[in-house]
Amino acid sequence: MIRRRGLFAVVSVFGWVLACSSDDGVLSRGDLAPAIDKNHLPPHEGEPVLNELLDSGTKGEPHGTSPAFQPDLGPPVVQLDAPPPIYGGTLAVMRGGNLVVASDPDRDVVHLVDMTSKEVRDVYTGAHALPFRVVEDASRRAHVTLRGTGELLTIDLISGQIVGRRWVCAEPRGLAYEPQNDDVWVACDGGALVEMGANGGSARRTLHLGRGLRDVVVVNDGMIVSKFRQATVTHVGWDGTIGPELAPQPINGVQPEVAWRTVANPTGGVTMLHQRASNQVINIELAAQPTQGAYGGCGVAGVLDSTLTTFAPNAPVKPRPGLVQMVVPVDFAFASDGVTALVVSPGNSHTKALVSYGFFGPKEQPPEPCGWGGGLPPTPNAPPPDPIAPDFNQYEYVAAAFDGVGHAILQSREPAALVVLNEARPHAVVMKIPLSDVSREDTGHLLFHSNSGGFLACASCHPEGGDDGHVWKFANGAVVSRRTPSLRGTVSGTAPYHWEGNLPSVAALLDDTFTQRMGGPHLDPPTKNAVQHWVESIPAPIAEPVSDSAAVMRGAQIFASAKCSSCHTGAHFTNNKTLSVGTGQSLQVPPLIGVSARAPFLHNGCASTLEDRFRLPPPKQGLSACGGGDQHGITSSLSPDQIDDLIAYLNGL
Question: Fewest 10 Å CB contacts: which of 99, 179, 281, 306?
Answer without folding.
Answer: 179
